[in-house]
Amino acid sequence: MNQIHPNYSIKIEERTDEILKWLYIGTNLPFWPEFYQYITHDLKTFQAKSILLTEEGNITGHVLLFNENEEILYFGFFGVFNHDKNKIGFLLNKLIEYGKLNKFSKIIGPVNIPTFIYGWGFMEKGSEASIYIGKPINPPIYQELFFHKGFTLKTKELSLEGPVIKLNSKILKSFTLENYEMFHPKSWEEVLSFKPIFFRLNTNLPRDSVITPGTQHLYENYVEFAKTYGGLFLIVFVKYKITGDIIGCFLSIPNPFRKNKSDVYDSCEAFIILLEKEHQGKGLGWLLALFSAKKGWDNNIRYNSTPIEKNVKRSIRMAKKYGLEHKRTHLILEYSI
Q: Which of 61, 125, 156, 167 has the maximum number of C-beta atoms within 10 A of its C-beta?
């Protein structure tokens, strides 16, 4: 599909190897060749496409398109060179046109797959702009133009960040719930065997709170990334002793953009926490977080970032209690067709 404008034209690109060449336009996070295997996995999983914006034959803008069903069109890696207002507006119009032409009912994004590397949302003005895993960086002109075009706020995600506190056993014991047991998988093979459990736990999330679609297809990709840049300490499961069932998990992401003086990765992001509904509201979430922080410290992790939805006030208070500060805000937007 090609469309003409006095100054610009667009092209729909479906070839994965070609899409890989242009995703960098839509992110300020490092786009290293060593990440290609993780990116390619998700592009192929979703059969993603790109809209490429060209000016006089040169590609100057990009937006990624993908979907899990016929209802919602997701977009990611939206960007143009020099953040030119006219080009952003033109590409945005083509994104909306594509959604209408293909009869989607909503457009949601930005969701930059794989999200465990490139994250989601437009960064809000005033946010810290340092390089960190899963934290997109962009000037405010993007969300301003999206809002002007009729997009509305779906989710406001806060990043609470700071040094990892060295926790002593007394603090952990004060949170201990005697009917629950936290544990790390013994091997990466065991981690992979827990995929059905992860998928079952993930179904407990309210539909509106799910940002990344198709998580049942993405588990192995996350595991491979955690294995390459981190370790088993990043993955915690919780067992309910009375039944022996695994009823929760806490997954973190290693941050390959930061190392200590010994050339060791020393930071991470708390990626996802899942609990069975009947075990929620008992403090298990924070017990998992503290257990994970303790194990992180034991494995050289000294800095952590935790994404928390703005309306989850209790979690924000708890994060600040343990020394984390609100450093960044990202906006996930939606458009009803």
A: 61
The count of structural domains within the chain is 2
One domain, residues 38 and 95? yes
DSSP symbol at 128: -
DSSP state of 124: P
Percentages (nearest 5) of helix, strand, coil residues in the chain? 35, 30, 30
Q: Which domain holds residue 113?
A: 2-157
Count of other CB atoms within 10 angstroms of residue 105:
12
Predicted TM-score (pTM) of the model is: 0.92
Pairing of strands 267-275, 325-336: unpaired
47 to 13, 166, 194, 212: CA distances (angstroms): 11, 44, 26, 15
Tokens of 121: 């949302």
Running DSSP on this structure, what letter comes out for residue 244? T
| Tens of pLDDT, residues 75-92 | 999 999 999 999 999 999
Q: How far apart are CA 241 and CA 47, in angstroms?
A: 42
Structure letter (DSSP) for residue 111: B
Residue 258 exposed, middle or buried by CB count within 10 Å (0-12, 13-18, 19+): middle
> Which residues fall within 8 angstroms of residue 245, CB to CB, at 6 or more apart?
239
Which token pair is 144?
């301003």
Q: Is residue 310 part of a domain?
A: no
pLDDT of the residue at 3: 46
**Contact at 8 Å (CB) between 269 and 255?**
yes
Q: At what angle do helices 219-229 and 36-46 cross, to 10 degrees?
A: 180
**DSSP E strands, the chain:** 2-4, 8-13, 49-55, 58-66, 72-80, 106-109, 122-123, 152-163, 180-183, 235-240, 245-254, 267-275, 303-309, 325-336
Q: Are residues 109 and 211 in the same domain?
A: no
Q: Evaluate whether residue 314 is within a structural domain.
A: no
185 pLDDT band (50/70/90 cuts)? very high
